[in-house]
Design brief:
CATH class: Mainly Alpha
Number of helices: 13
Structural class: mainly alpha
Subcellular location: Cell membrane
Largest sheet: 2 strands, antiparallel
Membrane topology: Multi-pass membrane protein
Helix content: over 70%
Main location: membrane
Radius of gyration: 23 Å
CATH topology: MetI-like fold
Family: Belongs to the binding-protein-dependent transport system permease family. CysTW subfamily.
CATH architecture: Orthogonal Bundle
Keywords: Cell membrane, Membrane, Transmembrane, Transmembrane helix, Transport
Shape: globular
CATH superfamily: MetI-like
Strand order of the largest sheet: 1-2
Order of helices and strands: HEEHHHHHHHHHHHH
C-alpha cells in the first residue's frame, strides 16, 4: 500500500518536476557553464576561465549598472510595499465583507491590459508633452516642462511601482485577513492604544504577507528589461539591458552569462539577508 501511494505521488510530481527541470534548471545550468568559458571571434572557446567574472565585477560600467539595478529594485520594493500596505489594510479592516470581492476585482484591473501597453501609457503620462507636464503648465504651476520624470531612474521607479502594486497588495491582504480580530480587541482591552496594537499585534502577524510582497516585487524588478528600455533612457539602463547588449549586440555570451549569474547571486544574497532580518524581527528581543 505504501509503495503504491509513493508511486502514485511520484507519478503526480514527475511531470511538473520534469517540466521545471527542462525549462528552468537546464537554461540556468547552461548560463552558468557559459559564464566560465572564453569568448572568441564569433564562437565560444571551451576553455575554463574566471576572466568573465573579473570583468563583470571590476569594470566600472558593469559594476555601476548592477548597483543601479539593485538600488532601483530596492526603491521600487520600498515604495510599492509602503503604498500597498494601507490599501490592503483598508480593504481588510474597513470594507464590508460583501464588498471585499469588488475591491479585489478593482485592484486586479491593471492586469486586464498588457504590461507593455501600461509601460507605454506611463511614457505618455511622464513625457515632455505628457499629461503631467501639460496639466502643470495649464495650471501655471511650472513655466517649462519637467525633465526629471522621464528617461531616468525616476521614471523606472514610478512605472515599476505601478506595475507591481497588485502583486504587493494581494499577499498583504491575505495575511491581514488571517488575523484573529479578537487579538486586537484583547490588546485594546489591556490598555494598548490603537497605534501600539497595530505595531505589536497587527504588523508582526502581517509580516508573512509583507515578506511575500517584498520578494515578489524585488526579484523580478531587478531583472526587468522592458521598462528601463522604454522609459529609462541612458541613465536608467539596468542589468537586463546590459545582458541583452552582451548577448545580441556584442555576441559575448560568456560575459553576458557571467553578468546574469552575478545578478542572480545578488538577488539571492539580498533575499536571504531580508529573510534573516525578518526572523529576528518576528522573534523579538530575548
Amino acid at each position: 500500500m505504501r509503495r503504491s501511494e509513493a508511486a502514485h505521488g511520484y507519478l503526480l510530481v514527475g511531470p511538473p518536476a520534469l517540466y521545471a527541470i527542462l525549462l528552468l534548471a537546464a537554461p540556468l545550468g547552461t548560463i552558468a557553464v557559459y559564464s566560465f568559458l572564453t569568448d572568441g571571434y564569433l564562437e565560444i572557446v571551451r576553455e575554463f576561465t574566471l576572466a568573465n567574472y573579473h570583468e563583470a565585477w571590476t569594470n566600472e560600467l558593469y559594476r555601476t549598472v548592477m548597483l543601479r539595478s539593485l538600488g532601483v529594485a530596492m526603491a521600487v520594493t520600498a515604495v510599492t510595499v509602503v503604498l500597498a500596505f494601507p490599501v490592503a489594510y483598508f480593504v481588510s479592516f474597513h470594507v464590508a465583507p460583501e464588498r471585499k470581492s469588488l475591491w479585489l476585482f478593482l485592484i486586479t484591473i491593471p492586469f486586464w491590459t498588457s504590461y507593455l501597453i501600461r509601460v507605454f501609457l506611463w511614457k505618455v503620462i511622464l513625457g515632455f508633452n505628457g499629461v503631467i507636464n501639460s496639466g502643470l503648465l495649464g495650471l501655471g504651476i511650472i513655466d517649462e516642462p519637467l525633465t526629471f520624470i522621464l528617461y531616468n531612474v525616476n521614471a523606472v521607479v514610478i512605472t515599476l511601482a505601478h506595475a507591481y502594486a497588485p502583486f504587493a497588495i494581494l499577499p498583504i491582504f491575505v495575511a491581514l485577513e488571517k488575523i484573529d480580530r479578537a487579538l486586537l480587541e484583547a490588546g485594546q482591552d489591556l490598555g494598548e492604544s490603537k497605534l501600539m496594537t497595530f505595531w505589536r499585534v497587527t504588523l508582526p502577524l502581517a509580516m508573512p504577507g509583507v515578506i511575500a510582497s517584498v520578494l515578489i516585487v524585488f526579484i523580478p524588478t531587478i531583472g526587468d528589461y522592458v521598462t528601463p528600455q522604454l522609459v529609462g533612457g541612458p541613465e536608467g539602463r539596468m542589468v537586463a539591458n546590459l545582458i541583452q547588449l552582451q548577448y545580441l549586440k556584442l555576441d559575448n555570451y560568456p560575459l553576458g552569462s557571467a553578468i546574469a549569474v552575478s545578478a542572480m547571486s545578488i538577488v539571492t544574497v539580498v533575499s536571504l539577508i531580508f529573510l534573516f532580518l525578518n526572523r529576528r524581527f518576528l522573534r523579538g528581543p530575548k
